[in-house]
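haha ok so turns out i had the wrong file open the whole time. this is the CORRECT one, sorry everyone. sequence first:
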Amino acid sequence: MSRMASTSADVLPTGSRIFTTFPDIFFIPEFVFGGLVWMLVASTLVNPANPLGWVMFVSIFCFVMTTLWFFIFAFGANQGGIWPSLDVAYHFVAVLLYLSASVVLAFFTVAIGIVVSAASVVPPNALKIYRLDIAAVVMSYLTTLLYFLHAIFSALRWKSS
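then structure:
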C-alpha cells in the first residue's frame, strides 16, 4: 500500500515543476483562453440570457476550479493515491462543460449573424457584438481543446502510475 502512495506522489508535480511538466503546462493557456471567453461574452449583449448565462457559468466555474486546481498542485496538496484520478475526472468534466457551452455559443452567434446580415439597417453595436461573439466562440473551442488535451495526457499519466 505504501508503494502505491509513493508511486502516485512521484506522478504529480508540485511547486514550480507544474510550469515545466506535461500536461500541467496546459494550466496557463487554460487560464488565458478561459478568461478570454469569460471577458468576451461578458462584454457583449448577453441575449438570450439563459443559454449565454450557461456559457458565463461554465467559463467562470472552470476558471475558478482551474485556479483552485493550480494552487493545489503548486502547494503540493496533490500528493496521495486519489489525486491522479481526480485530475483526470476534473479535466474530463471541464471538457464536457466547455463543449456544451461552445456549442450553445456557436449556435447563437450564427443566429446573430443571420439576423445582422438580413437586416436592412444594422444597429450601431450589432456588428461589434457579432465580432466579439465570433472571437468568444473561437476562444471557447480553443479552451475546450486545451482541457481535452490536458484530460487525455492526465489519463495517460494516471494509467501509467
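Confidence is low (pLDDT under 50) at residues 1-9.
again sry for the mixup
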